[in-house]
Design goal:
Number of strands: 14
Structural class: alpha/beta
Low-confidence stretches: 209-228
CATH class of the largest domain: Alpha Beta
Number of helices: 8
CATH superfamily of the largest domain: Spore Coat Polysaccharide Biosynthesis Protein SpsA, Chain A
Largest sheet: 6 strands, mixed
Strand order of the largest sheet: 2-1-3-8-5-13
Mean pLDDT: 89
Strand content: 25-35%
CATH architecture of the largest domain: Alpha-Beta Complex
Distance between the termini: 44 Å
CATH topology of the largest domain: Spore Coat Polysaccharide Biosynthesis Protein SpsA, Chain A
Oligomer: single chain
Helix content: 25-40%
Order of helices and strands: EHEHEEHEEEEHEEEEHEEHHH
Amino acid sequence: MKNTIIVMSSNREIEAATKKTLQNLTDQGAMVLLETGSADVAYARCRALSWACEKLRECPERDVILMLDDDMDVPAETAQALVDRARELGRACSAVYATLTARVAAARWPDHPGLWLVGLGCVAIPRALLLDLEERSESFDMNGRVYSAFTWTGPENGHWVGEDFRLSKNLGGVHLCPLAVGHIKKGALWPDEETLAQLARSAHEAAPAGLTSAAADAATPKEIREND
């Protein structure tokens, strides 16, 4: 990993397993660029990749960018295999991870056999490919700094395209490698039954004249639970 730059954007606490991943990879020589402070995901990606291009020019021995999200669990040997594959193909390569709905975070790119549009949780991009995209991308100024618009979110041909699939397209499609990585997601939080019962009693006591007890009960806990 000594010739790799890891790029991560985050505006929250990085998962413990991801911190361990970063430590393992830096122990093997990877460099880490951490972009923080922006809730605009597309902007954060553009800023982080712009910094990465600056660092590539400063460090010509670094020849692959490894994009990692802040909730990924990536074994060091998997990261190495992914980076090696990107070098070999000269193409962006992604590991495989699941979404919260247990689907692969990727979709085949129509009319582009063998290429995928992917989530950006674990994607290796060869140096030459990223610098070429920087050259082709429009630039923009933000707070006195100039960045490249590597990706954005918006409509295209009647469909909404997210920043992850947009970057996949701008990179010329992604090779999806049969390499598994972990995606850390939290479960849903539900109010307890005692809280719901208290809300139901309060609604019953505050029900206006003409509203029956049954109507008051039906109008509160079920809607709060389903709509919040």
